[in-house]
TrEMBL record:
Domain of life the protein comes from: Bacteria
Lineage: Bacteria, Pseudomonadati, Pseudomonadota, Alphaproteobacteria, Caulobacterales
Name of the protein this chain belongs to: Glutaminyl-peptide cyclotransferase
This protein's record includes keyword Signal: yes
Organism: Brevundimonas staleyi
Sorted UniProt keywords: Signal
InterPro entries: QCT (IPR007788), Quino_amine_DH_bsu (IPR011044), WD40/YVTN_repeat-like_dom_sf (IPR015943)
Length: 280
């Protein structure tokens, strides 16, 4: 998916921008009531605009600038990271200096995508073809495969479910043992379906998702799919990137024990610990 048109950036930015401009919001008109009807129907409630957050950089760490980051998680003091393109890989990465401590490469036919760690297993996706891989979390030895329909983009998990994004507005829920789909939810922003949900992270009851090719992360209520907040990370990477359409924000990791939030991007030379600033 690194080859798609960057015009999609403008599409999402436009969607967010539209929501910021009340006059431009096109409400669906309620059907006109017959003239004889005494009590007019109440106007349809407009979905409220979710709060928008900024950020502060707390720490900056090195990140492999050749890592086309697809999935990122914090586990037991280090990062687990999956990368795309060819060869794709799954990695164990030291926080402090970005050193790749261990790496396994996928067969050249696969384009790596999202990652999540469940118990002693790492699960990773591939973009097209429905091939999922299971890895030993300590050794990165291959430990199995699984399959799914459609595309694979992002992965995370809550207490009982693996959560998968596929580029559409749908988040799928999988059984963590069988990796079979058990349900799904459609993600909406102000009542409209929101697609291009990419890297995921489950944080304190919410699913956070990078919107592909944008500087936005959305906060999703997984029970309803409603976007309850938008984080604007514009300007976080001061360095120039080789290819602005491809080298985009992607990678969210949450250190639950210490409540630290990390973000990076594809081929970014830096990884950031950030904290959110007040909603605007
Ligand atoms: Ca993640």
């Amino acid at each position: 998916m690194d080859l798609r048109a960057s015009r999609l950036v403008a599409a999402f930015a436009g969607l967010i921008g539209l929501a910021l401009a009340p006059a431009a919001y096109a409400q669906t008109a309620a059907p006109a009531a017959p003239a004889a009807q005494a009590a007019p129907a109440a106007p349809a409630a407009r979905p409220s605009r979710p709060p928008r957050y900024g950020y502060e950089v707390v720490n900056v760490f090195p990140h492999d600038p050749t890592a086309f980051t697809q999935g990122l998680e914090f586990h037991d003091g280090l990062f687990l990271e999956s990368t795309g393109r060819h060869p794709s890989s799954v990695r164990r990465v030291r926080l402090e200096d970005g050193e790749v401590l261990a790496k396994r490469e996928l067969d050249m036919q696969f384009f790596g995508e999202g990652l999540t760690a469940v118990g002693d297993r790492i699960l990773t996706l591939t973009w097209q073809g429905g091939h999922g891989f299971v890895w030993n979390i300590d050794t990165l030895e291959p430990a199995g495969t699984f399959s799914y329909s459609g595309e694979g983009w992002g992965l995370t998990h809550d207490e009982t479910r693996v959560i998968l994004s596929d580029g559409t507005p749908t988040l799928r829920f999988l059984d963590p043992d069988t990796l079979q789909q058990t349900g799904s939810v459609e993600v909406t922003y102000m009542g409209r379906p929101l697609d291009r949900l990419n890297e995921l992270e489950f944080i304190e009851g919410e699913v956070w998702a990078n919107i592909w090719q944008t500087d936005f992360i959305v906060r999703i209520d997984p029970s309803t799919g409603v976007v309850t907040g938008v984080i604007d990370l514009s300007g976080i990477l001061p360095d120039p990137v080789h290819n602005p359409a491809d080298d985009v924000l992607n990678g969210i990791a949450w250190d639950a024990a210490n409540k630290r939030l990390f973000v990076t991007g594809k081929n970014w030379p830096k990884l950031f610990e950030i904290r959110l600033t007040e909603a605007r």
